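sorry for the late reply, my laptop died twice this morning and i had to redo everyting from scratch. anyway the thing you sent over, i finally got around to it. pasting the sequence first so we're on the same page, its 315 residues, then the predicted structure underneath. double check i copied it right bc i was rushing
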Amino acid sequence: MGTPPPPPAFHLSKRGSPLPLSLEHKTMAQPNRPLHRCLSRTTGLLGILTVGGILLAGGLQGQDPATRTLPDHDAFTQVLERVVQIPRVDYALLKEERAGLDRYVDALSATDPGVLDAASREEQLAFWINAYNACMLRLVVDHYPIEAGGVGLFGAVRNRVAGYPDNSVWQIRDVFSRAHCPVAGRDRSQDEIEHEIIRPRFQEPRIHFAVNCAALSCPVLWPDAYTAEALDAQLDRAVRHLIRNPDHFLLEGASPATLTLNKVLDWYAEDFNGHEGLKTFFADYLQGSARERVLAPATRVRFFEYDWTLNDVRR
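ok and here's the structure:
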């Protein structure tokens, strides 16, 4: 459960899958340059041979080995173990001891897009979930303690109308849309990571229980990073944790029952095939009468108000 839904112009079914990261990187990083038409064919051929020889002889061999592998997510786990107190985060401590987080983000930045594209689906998804969460932590720490007044007049009016708390991440200018975090070769925004990479590329609805936007109504951060080996179990753990929390999942009554869910599941109901799809999704995690009540056609689906208060241990 990450950011609020993107603007109406975002239509997942019309966007298709994004470019592979390696192709995207080359496309966006290389400006158009005019060709020097005055070069003779001989000069051009010599140049090609020279460049090719350099690449073959030393280009790849001289590459930093760290860029040819994916980051060690254990480094992120070490950060999380220090600061996560489910369901909150000790941002003051993280600000004091941010070196570990910065090193992990540096590793995300240095990751070669081609290496990432060649990784397994589980490795890629774990990478991007961790990237979203690490970048969000970094953004909060960069502005901590968060106070009202840093978003300009328009932002202040928006926050007042929406009722965002004074310590909400919405007090950070362009918090979700600004490309602030270097990942896989270039700066990226929270919106890009979630809405342009994770959602369309992987089509895994359980990510809405894993990406954390630093609000009390977000799914919790865990004291361990996501890994390819444990990814499926970790995502299921996140879903079951939400089901056990009556502030996020509440099944009441019978004939008809009412199922009240976290508001993010309303924002992204399309990722679950609509509200009826949400019922089917959660039924797979329930048993007995609870499962039957959730699946009943008459069961109504409602949603809690979203609490954007910062998930800080220092309330």
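The first helix runs from residue 12 to 15.
thats about all i looked at so far, will dig more tmrw
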